[in-house]
Amino acid sequence: MDCLTALPPGGDRSYNAYLVLVDRYSKTPMFLPCRKDDTPMDTAIMIWNNVISHTGLFQNIMRDRDPKFTSALWTNLHSLFGTKLSFSTAYHPETDGLEERMIQTLEDMIRRFCAY
Fold first, then answer.
1. What separation in angstroms does the CA of 67 have from each of 27, 33, 70, 71, 87?
2. CATH architecture assignment, domain 2-114
3. pTM
4. Residue 92 pLDDT > 70, yes or no?
């Protein structure tokens, strides 16, 4: 799980970031539009409504060390659901390289289709 935040500014109420999730088993990417200033609670609700409600709970979730994902809220949610919370190692692309590659692909698609 990672965020793409290098998007051009839109209007006041428009989305200006994407939350990128990749299922490591099937390599299926999920791109959820969000805002840079979303709180951890906003992010958790968005993941619950758009991902977990369709796929079910995950056994293990690997995320980067973004403050949105390191809050006590996430630790409490994972202990409540009985899932494992893992953080990627800094400067080791082996742990989150798939998400980073998906972010590059998404940026390329946005540039081609939106003249960004």
1. 25, 18, 5, 6, 12
2. 2-Layer Sandwich (3.30)
3. 0.74
4. no
